[in-house]
Design brief:
Distance between the termini: 52 Å
Radius of gyration: 30 Å
Protein name: O-Glycosyl hydrolase
Pfam family, one: Glyco_hydr_30_2
Shape: globular
Oligomer: single chain
GO molecular function: hydrolase activity, hydrolyzing O-glycosyl compounds
Helix content: 25-40%
Mean pLDDT: 88
Keywords: Hydrolase, Membrane, Transmembrane, Transmembrane helix
Largest sheet: 8 strands, parallel, barrel
InterPro entries: 6GAL-like, 6GAL/EXGAL, GH, Glyco_hydro_b
Amino acid sequence: MRPFSSCGTGFNFQLNETDFMKWVSKCTQHEQLHKMNYINLEDLWITKEGVTMAHHEQRFRGRRGLVFAGTALLALVAVGGMAINHYMNSTPKALVFQEDPVHLKLEQSYDHFEGWGTSLAWWANDLGGWKDQAKVDEVMDLIFDPAKGLGLNIVRYNIGGEENPEMNALRPGGDVPGFQPEPGKWDWEADAGQRSVMQGAIKRGVNITEAFSNSPPYWMTISGSVTGAEDGGNNLREDQYDAFADYLTEVVKHYRDTWGITFRTLDPLNEPSANWWKKGNQQEGSHFSTEKQAEIIKKTAASLQSKGLDGTVISAADDNSIDETVFNFSLYDQDTIDAVKQMNTHSYNGSKMEELRALADKLGKKLWMSEYGTGGTEPHNHEDMTSVQELADRIMFDLKIMQPSAWVYWQAVEDEGAKNNWGFIHANFNGDEQYEMTKQYYGMAQFTKFIRPGAVIIPTDEGRTLAAYDAKAQRLVLVIRNELSAENKAFDLTGWDVAKTGSAQVYQTSPELNMQKLEDIPVYTNGIEVPTADNSITTVVLEGVLPSAE
């Protein structure tokens, strides 16, 4: 046998990996393999199953060509396909777009995203009292653990008002205990369930906590009930504004001093502009006119300062509608605006997202989307996809246009007995300590598992897509919402250096899949094409990506 020496027809079965790589590099550099028609490297693919030819029309000249090609294939397999991978990576291809691709609008990106969260009302009040601690830990991991679950890192703790014992019972979980059942009497053993859940959440990685109130204690109200006024109007008695501010800040102080939990923000209000908070409802709620909102905001801020609670600042006003938030802040006096350090809004209703973002920027305030939840349009069904589509649509809409620093869901866990499709997990608030995951859980995971706190949020020029970039991890994430028929969605990645990224990971939730990892897809020099199933949410993860220097 002739010894290996050049790109000629001589070969040696005993080539080591280093020499073989040099041989392939030399041959490909001089295009000898192509000229000899022994093998077309661009049509050769190495997989775990072996070597295959992409085109069957390859022809070899004579018996020596066949022998050479077979030997080359054996050698390539022997070194695990490293030579071909080297060749393919050194000559990346561009993607030919069949139609206009999605473009990432880098000029509109923002880097102040703090993370994802949930309110603890009302589910933590119930779950925290379960006797089966193993079941509690399972649910907690599913919600807060970054590796095992959604990885939510923000919780909103509800400071309960506690209903008048002479009134009808509130909805399951909604009867959140208060710490001051009557004037001058404090009960610091109250609300052990919600407190236990919050402590467990912090152990699993929650790093931002906010306290908020749905209603003052019943004995401070005009109606004598935490459910609202008789007519849906203001319900806090005129002589109780100082007392209510003291109540809220005393709870904040006790949590700091006794349990070592410092709430970063305190909101004394919840959907204060709504007129549906009426006596006899099944949950806590309290209307405040704009003037009265300003009054309790300023008094609560002053109470925080007087007690030396410098680690906690005021957030407000958690209106149900984005438009209500814009309206109320336009009417607050300067002292009230100065007292508010963080603007909170729910996004159930309203369209003035750009106006709110501009207002927050103008006032120099952090902006949160502090509550949203959805149950879709279908009857009670844990596999419901309409709620998943509504959730994904809202997240994309809010993050792209309103651009909040945090996005917080209402209740991560909903009462199975309510027979709706809200929430990520359904549990029995009354009865057996059991739970089931819903399809909406996996829809949320398509975002929270991959777009982590600190990521740069990148709007796109297409309404059903969103992008995010983690500079530290060099990870680019693309999320696609498709409520229509199956299609391929192409992205133009001009402006990104993907030289180190040969393929991308794909995860999908659909009627058949629960955030299932699919086969990796190729990444081209200028973009990527993603197959999406009908009625699905698809997340694409590209590792080793850098912004282009150009």
